Amino acid sequence: QVQLVESGGGLVQVGGSLRLSCAASGSMFSISTLGWYRQAPGKQRELVAGMSRVGSTSYADSVKGRFTISRDIAKNTVYLQMNSLKPEDTAVYYCRQIFNAVSDYWGQGTQVTVSS
Fold first, then answer.
1. Largest CB tally within 10 Å, which of 63, 73, 82, 96?
2. Contact 49/80 with Cβ under 8 angstroms?
């Protein structure tokens, strides 16, 4: 069973930066698809950034140029660097690790609040 533990959320002012971390247990991390999602109050959960097994990345249009997803395979950790934060980035952020249809895991979420 894989466990994902997120950290790094908090309160930040507009234009500030945060780096989220998601530490994974287990041995499938390096061969899994990884993703960061977010869910704001009253809205559906959305994909913010993704990384394929070979390391290619993709981003939602709303965060392109501001957010960067990265991973450290030696530490089984995926990161989300968030710069130039806006109030609309306020949400609970979740990491996700997908190996296959059965091995699909989510973290518990970390709150990010951007104050204006």
1. 82
2. yes
